[in-house]
Structure formats: C-alpha cells, structure tokens
C-alpha cells in the first residue's frame, strides 16, 4: 500500500492548478488574448538587467565552475552577501553561518517545519493562507490550526491568542499576504510577539515564528516592512527571490535563523539535518552565483502598483467589493454569492479565471492575481461587468 496521505495529495489538485490547466486549454482553443487568466502568481515584469548580465558573465568565466556542487548550505560568499543585505535593511545581526540557501521559499518552509516539529504538534496560521502550508505541516507530522483573520484580513489578536496553546510549536505568518495582499503592521507583529513570549513562559516551551517573505519588496503607498526577527527572538525567515527578481522557475531562496534565538545553533543544525533528510542540499549552483551579484536589486515592481490601480478602480466602478491590497500582487474580491466555487465557475463562462477562496481557508471570495499585462486587466472589464450584471437581474 502507498502512503494514504501522500497519495491523496498527489491525486487532489488545488483549484489554482486546475484553473491553470483549464486556462492553457482555452488559450489554445480561442487564443490567449481572449482568456483573462488571473489564476497564477507568476511574475509578469521582466527580470532586471543584472540577472541576464550575471548569467552571461558567469558562463563566460572559464575559471569558475557554475554547474558544480556547492556546500550543502550554499556558497558561503552568497550567505555573507545575504546577511549584509538583511542586516543593513532591517537592523538585524544574522550570522552568515545561520543562513541556509534553498530551492525557493517552499523548500525553506518545508525544511523549517521538518526541523522544529514533533508529531502532533500544532502550527498556527491566519486564514486566508497559502494552501501548501497544510501540506508542508502535515508532511512534517504536525497539525495545522487555522485562525480566521479580522475583517481587513489582518490578524484578529484575540482569536490568535485563544489559538496558541500548550501544543503550539510554530506560527507561520505571510506579509505581504498571498492571497489577500494584507501587510501586518508593527502593532500586529508586536502584539503577536507578546502573546508568543507569554505562551513560551506559560507552557515552558519554545514557539517558533516562521516568516514566509517572498513578497516583502512588493508593497504600495510608501509602506515599509518591519522584519519579525527584530521583534521576536525565536523567529525564522524564509525568503525567495522568485518575486523580487521575476525568476520563479529558478527556485532559489534561503532560510535565516535569528541570531537572538536562544538555541540558534541547535535549530540551525536541525535545519541542516532536515535539508539533508528531504534532499534539499546544494540548491542551483549557477543561480547562487547570479544572486550573489544581484543582491539588493529588484525587478520594476511599479508595474504591479499600476495594475492594482487599474484593477481596483475598474472593479469598484462596476460595483464589486474588496479590501484594498497593501502589497503582493493579489486582490481578494468578494464573490457575488456565498459559494465562491460556484461564482468561479460562472466567471469561467466569461473567460475569467478566478481562484475561489476555499483553497485559502475561508469562504466567499476569489483571488485575482494582477501580475499580468496591463492590457489584460483593461480588456477584462467588460467580462467582469457582464458577470456582475448576471447577479443584478
């Protein structure tokens, strides 16, 4: 017999993947310009010039070995550059020897959970949340505990406090958030940190705050991001360059263990062990070298801010409701009926591909990914209006 849970995960596709496959078929049938695909969070802006320049330079240098193994944790020279960057930007004191280079943030989360969880321990998340958190948690032997967000999709502090218990081992936060675009404020982070410190003392156990940060550079209206590692000692940063550099297919990111963590050395050793056990060692060598040359650079994210403006103003003029996203490149749109899946199916009849919120741990909304061409958003407005009018009859 194959493992039941693993088999179930393999057979059950998320709505996101199903929509992506449906969209590929429809684009082949009627032309891509006639399908308004808002299903995937695939960066739409070009990579910054430094990426292509770095690739060419590295491949031209015959003295380097860009396709050879690096150390399991990644190039030390890269880890030093990462430490310099995050320490300089966020006022941290991360040790390069506490950084583990990974195949993107997903690998970072999987490794971190595998490192800290014992069977049956709980991982608290705020809904709406990235659906793979459940898979990552359960695959590590943990139990996902879902806390509904406040009305603005940020943390409901009282609900969060009630959820933290003697079984809590970790909390995952994602700010800016996929799928809502919400950004946790300093007050939110401070209140959560106070609750976790009190719980650590009450239950005499360490509770890890795992910060999933692939969208941290994509924020709007002059907002700045505060690192949770500066607020809470027992914290772990999981980062990916996929969104900031528009290179999701290259699968490159890192884990950073807070140097202020009381057992930082042991936790990092457990991360090394988990990476080894899961086979996540020596992430792509070529792109380790590329990242080393491109630290601190981002793609032109101003296009996402323009897309947000075009989308929200267009939908508001039609009559749709939503909470303004503060970051990332997603809009959480209120469905026009309680059943978000049914609403998503009706949208498909207008060639609108919208992801129902059920996959994200809540009901009544759809996720609209606006990391698309601006023309796609503009051209989709008649379809959104036709869909809205169906519910107005």
CATH class of the largest domain: Alpha Beta
Cα distance spanning the termini = 53 Å
* CATH-defined topology of the largest domain: Aspartate Aminotransferase, domain 2
Domain module count: 2
Largest sheet: 7 strands, mixed
**Which range does the strand content fall in?**
5-15%
Secondary-structure element pattern, one letter each:
HHEHHEHEHEHEHEEEHHHEHEEEH
Form type: globular
Rg (CA only)? 21 Å
In the CATH hierarchy, what is the superfamily of the largest domain?
A: Type I PLP-dependent aspartate aminotransferase-like (Major domain)
In the CATH hierarchy, the architecture of the largest domain is 3-Layer(aba) Sandwich
- The structural class is alpha/beta
Number of strands: 12
Word description of this protein:
It is globular, with a radius of gyration of 21 Å. Helix 3 (49-60) packs across helix 10 and helix 5 runs parallel beside helix 6 (132-139). With 393 residues, the chain is of the alpha/beta class. The chain starts with a helix and ends with a helix. The model has no long low-confidence stretch (mean pLDDT 95). It has helices spanning 4-11, 15-30, 49-60, 76-90, 104-116, 132-139, 157-163, 186-203, 264-278, 285-294, 302-318, 340-348, 374-392; strands at 36-37, 99-102, 122-127, 143-148, 168-174, 208-212, 235-240, 253-257, 330-334, 352-353, 355-356, 365-369. The strands form 3 sheets. It has a 7-stranded mixed sheet with strand order 2-8-7-6-5-3-4, with helices on both faces. A 3-stranded antiparallel sheet has the order 9-12-11. It has a two-stranded parallel sheet with strand order 1-10. Strand 3 (122-127), helix 6 and strand 4 form a beta-alpha-beta unit.
